[in-house]
Amino acid sequence: MAMTSHERVMTALSHRKPDRPPLNYFGPPETTKKLLEHLHLENHEDLLCYFRADMRYVSAKYVGPKEYSGDSGYSSGGTDMWGIPWRSISNEFCTYTEVASHPLGEITTLQQLQEYPWPSPDWLSVSHLKEDIQSINRSEPKAIVLPIGFFYETAWFLRGFEQLMMDFVVQPDIAEFIMMKITGLFKEVAIRAVEASDGQIDIVWSRSDVGMQDGMMFSPELWRKQIKPWHRELIEPFKQMGLKTRYHTDGGVTPIIDDLIEMGVDLLDPIQPKAKGMDAENLSARFGGRISFYGGVDTQELLPFGTAAQVESEVLRLISILGSNGGYVVAASNAVQPDVPIENILALYRTASEYRY
Description:
single chain; 357 residues; alpha/beta; TIM Barrel; seven-stranded parallel sheet; two-stranded antiparallel ribbon; 13 strands; 15% strand
């Protein structure tokens, strides 16, 4: 019997086999536009339905001072509510945003940090969420995901990457204050969102990259001391509410996956198969049945340079390994870029949506 999207995702995250693997799509506007034109569809929701994607996303709305562009310049550009300025960078395929400067880069004392104009949770409204989710679920219940924010990355956006790394070792009180302010706001807004949704949010999604192609950005010991305690604040309260939790980090993070499991992370996103230790066989052998996996369909080589037949074969292989006992959401290993051939994207979603456990 066919499951609803909500049932499918929640079954997989409980390490049981659903009717088919859950699916998710994520790409920049340029990729989405290309797909909509090719498939003669009108909007993003039409595309998600075409792909049979099972997750939908809701967020707080920025209602703060008009001098800021929004809650994160990653999507809005300009100067965001943290005071971080962003600039647009384009290549032949896409336009992205990147941090232009670090407003806390020259701070030397805690008093200066205390005097900084930190944003307020009241700048983010959640009053619309209940109605938005009811609208999303009108045709069929979906798995509703609430993104929390880039908690550790916002810290280095504010401070500068090198300086924050030095702070962790030389000035831990400064690093601790910054992490406290960021995670405190994200946690408060997420709690308000869960309450405002009246139980309709299913998954709380924390985000921040701590891995690279060849391993962690820093030692696992430093991560456990300086980052894990703050990340725990964005996991445990929601687990206690009965929600599922998802965490996004790129790169090779196998040294801390046991920690993530201990903290209560249900879904690790995304699986970047070319990164050290992140191949499906290793992940399944070491962590299968204890955490669920998202992604894994390689965006570095396979999707842009492979054939549709190779994509189909890899999707089936990943399902057989990562989804052998449920616990796998099929998706690309990162955003699907506009240079990926359309036939490869279609092969990914056709193969997974037609698969039956």
